Amino acid sequence: MGWVENGMLLLGLMVVCLSYLHYVRRTHDLRGVLLFWQRRMALTPGEFKLQRAGIVVLFVGILIRYLNLTLWG
User: Fold this and answer.
1) Local confidence band at 71 (pLDDT 50, 70, 90 cut-offs)
2) Are 57 and 49 in contact (CB under 8 A)?
3) How many CB atoms lie within 10 A of CB 67?
4) What pLDDT digit, counting tens, does each position of 24-61 carry?
5) What is the extent of the structural domain holding 59?
6) Taking CA 15 as the corner, what is the angle to CA 14 and CA 16, rounded to the nearest 5 degrees?
7) Are 22 and 47 in contact (CB under 8 A)?
8) In this predicted model, which residue has the larger pLDDT, 41 or 19?
9) Is the pLDDT of residue 4 over 80?
10) Closest Cα to residue 47, out of 33, 68, 37?
């Protein structure tokens, strides 16, 4: 089960990074990604959906890791 959680975490991180890479290529604004807490990024609907999908995959990976440690560990 450990490979599933690691795979989900890696896949989620890659999808989020892919959405940020798409944003940087489109706007040439790397500073907006580095200072994401300042709400400088204006994502397109496609980039936003890709980012949210990556966050959901990351959350599922964290949930699997938590369940693996508490219930099955």
Assistant:
1) confident
2) no
3) 13
4) 999 999 998 888 778 888 899 999 999 999 999 999 99
5) 2-70
6) 90
7) yes
8) 19
9) yes
10) 33
Handedness of CA 24, 30, 5, 56 (dihedral sign): negative
Task: Check residue 1 and give its pLDDT.
Answer: 67
At residue 13, the pLDDT reads: 96
Q: Could you say which DSSP state residue 1 is in?
A: -
CA dihedral angle for residue 49, residue 52, residue 54, residue 59, rounded to 10 degrees: -150
Number of domain units in the chain: 1
DSSP states of 6-60 as a string?
A: HHHHHHHHHHHHHHHHHHHHHH--HHHHHTGGG------HHHHHHHHHHHHHHHH
Structure-token pair, residue 61: 């990976």
Dig out the tokens for 52 from the structure: 């949210």
